[in-house]
Design goal:
CATH superfamily of the largest domain: P-loop containing nucleotide triphosphate hydrolases
Structural class: alpha/beta
Radius of gyration: 22 Å
Bound molecules: adenosine-5'-triphosphate, magnesium ion
CATH class of the largest domain: Alpha Beta
CATH architecture of the largest domain: 3-Layer(aba) Sandwich
Number of strands: 6
Number of domains: 2
Strand content: 5-15%
Strand order of the largest sheet: 1-3-4-5-2-6
Order of helices and strands: EHHEHEHHEHEHEHHHHH
CATH topology of the largest domain: Rossmann fold
Largest sheet: 6 strands, mixed
Length: 299
């Protein structure tokens, strides 16, 4: 049983998380920068006075849905623990912002204070800790944009509590790193954003990344259905990759499965998957994307 507000808690480096670090395809300099910032948190930060270098131990990843932020954050946690081989070992905690923010007045503030003010310091007293604040806009909600619908006083207090606790943690626990993610950077309180030591925008995959993600997914399916790998050497494969532009990584990874749904015999035996099936699946995804974009514009 996890404590309230904690979705996951484990020792690092974790093998499945390390796999995530490798699975997320981004420009190498982006990943290097991210890892350097995380490492710096545990090397430089404890050794320089906060008065001179006011680091908070917060990295913020922002970007569209399905661009790999959560996977990257988990992977970064594991990779950081791996490269800084510490004797005591790192600990990972994933916060569940939705279970902290309750509709009962005053409850969110208490839950945030309990987690960030008591529970996390208990862990951080024992070992270096990396905390994932996934979908952080739910926790550090922009106080300037609160409507009267959703119990604004409570949300206001919860955000205040997050900021106050972050300042306390930054002052007392330099062996603590928060990795926050968000699809809605505009919904995050600006005081939280200002506390981030690095804000990194995770973009949609470029051509090269589309190629790598699709290849990787085909190879994975090909381990069980070897003929699927023939798609990689098909003369039309490059064209198919070019068609992926604009799709997010999650969509691209799902394409191979989606392509198996056009013909029943392919669903029964994915070895029969053709490049035309794949191309059809991409066309469909692109049409869906255009339709949802059109809808959001007309709203
Ligand atoms: N750049 C990428 N390279 C490889 N795989 C990717 C990439 N982007 C997304 N994926 C894949 O898409 C899936 C979704 O990733 P993830 O949940 O981390 O995205 P997210 O940005 O957190 O999405 P959301 O904003 O909806 O929470 C994962 O299976 C991941 O491997
Ligand atoms: Mg996510």
């Amino acid at each position: 049983m996890q404590d309230t507000g904690i979705l996951d808690s484990r020792k690092l480096p974790d093998v499945t998380f390390l796999e995530l670090w490798n699975a997320i395809i981004l420009p190498p300099e982006t990943k290097d920068r991210l890892l350097s910032q995380a490492v710096l948190n545990f090397t430089l930060r404890p050794n320089v006075s906060r008065a001179d270098l006011p680091l908070h131990g917060v990295i913020l990843l922002v970007g569209e849905p399905g661009t790999g932020k959560t996977s990257l954050a988990r992977g970064l946690a594991a990779k950081t623990a791996q490269v800084i081989s510490s004797e005591v070992g790192f600990w990972y905690i994933e916060v569940d912002p939705h279970s902290l923010t309750s509709s009962a007045l005053g409850k969110s503030q208490r839950a945030v204070t309990e987690l960030l003010g008591n529970k996390i310091p208990e862990y951080a007293a024992k070992q270096p800790v990396i905390v994932l604040l996934d979908e952080v806009e739910a926790l550090a909600t922009d106080r300037s944009k609160l409507s009267l619908e959703a119990n604004p006083i409570d949300v206001h207090r919860a955000t205040d509590a997050v900021l106050a606790q972050l300042d306390q943690l930054a002052a007392n626990h330099p062996n603590l790193l928060f990795i926050a993610t968000s699809n809605f950077p505009k919904a995050i309180d600006s005081a939280f954003v200002s506390r981030a030591d690095l804000i990194l925008s995770v973009d949609l995959p470029n051509q090269e990344a589309c190629h790598a993600i699709l290849t990787n997914t085909i190879e994975a399916v090909g381990r069980s259905y070897p003929k699927v790998k023939n798609l990689l050497t098909d003369p039309l494969f490059k064209e198919v990759v070019n068609m992926c532009e604009g799709l997010d990584g999650r969509r691209i990874r799902k394409l191979v499965a989606a392509a198996c749904t056009y013909r029943k015999e392919v669903a029964f035996d994915p070895n029969k998957l053709s490049i035309e099936d794949l191309s059809r699946a991409i066309e469909h995804e692109q049409q869906q994307l255009q339709a949802t974009r059109g809808e959001s514009k007309s709203r």
